[in-house]
Amino acid sequence: MADYIEGKRPVVEALRTQMPIKCVLVADNVQRDSLVNDILRKAKQRDIPVKTISRKRLDEISERGSHQGVMAEALPFDYVNGTAILKAAEASAEAHDGRALVVVLDHITDAGNLGAIARSAESVGAAGIVIPNKRAARVTAATYKSSAGAIAHIPVAQVANIASTLDRLKEAGFWVAAATEHAADYIWDANLKGKIALVLGNEGEGVSRLVLEHCDFGVKLPQVGAVSSLNVAQASTACMYEWLRQNRTAAEGLRG
């Protein structure tokens, strides 16, 4: 089934963040305002076909009825497999004094959170992201927007079984750390040097019991405020930057 982006501003954002687009659909009676002109300009710059169709046909395609006379048909995201993530991680370790980070998401359900996590992962130089292929967020227009396009620059693997993927990572020399508020140790006191797989849990339930059983240790963020916890995207950023801090090198100008 095709994935459509509906509305002028969402289509502008999809084009701006380099989301793979098959074509742009424009109603034959759409008002040519500044947003429509921007869409047509960006589509031309990216050599994306623009098709003029009847508003009735757009209404038929629309799932939410919010197309405003403009929609875009997205191309499927180019996921990789678990083996590709392992290869990328090994290449990262060879290039960066043995350090590599793989971010594993245990059934994150919000596509915007996936994008925010991807933005931080790309920023710290993570080798890739692993997500389940069922009952979890997938890469959508919301992911491109919240990642500011970073999702296009980091490998994302969809896997059938998170636990078995963690076992493969451990066989490849990774230590698996679960970010959980129930951990005994603060992340500052944990050893995150070298090859680390960071597991982040579902927005409501956290890391599942089954996945925790396949992790080597748990880490948590210290909190002294009144709010009980950070959301998963915020927590992921703090955890990933602690990994980067511990693996800093003078050659890269990273100093603590």
Automatic annotation (TrEMBL):
Alphabetized InterPro entries for the sequence: Alpha/beta_knot_MTases, Ribosomal_eL30-like_sf, rRNA_MeTrfase_TrmH, SpoU_MeTrfase, SpoU_subst-bd, tRNA_m1G_MTases_N
CDD domains for the chain: SpoU-like_RlmB
Gene name for this UniProt entry: rlmB
Transmembrane segments: none
SMART domains for the chain: SpoU_sub_bind
Alphabetical keyword list: Methyltransferase, Transferase
Family: Belongs to the class IV-like SAM-binding methyltransferase superfamily. RNA methyltransferase TrmH family.
Span of domain RNA 2-O ribose methyltransferase substrate binding: 4-80
Name of the featured protein: 23S rRNA (Guanosine(2251)-2'-O)-methyltransferase RlmB
Classification via Gene3D superfamilies: 3.30.1330.30, 3.40.1280.10
PANTHER family from the UniProt entry: 23S RRNA (GUANOSINE-2'-O-)-METHYLTRANSFERASE RLMB
Keyword Transcription tagged: no
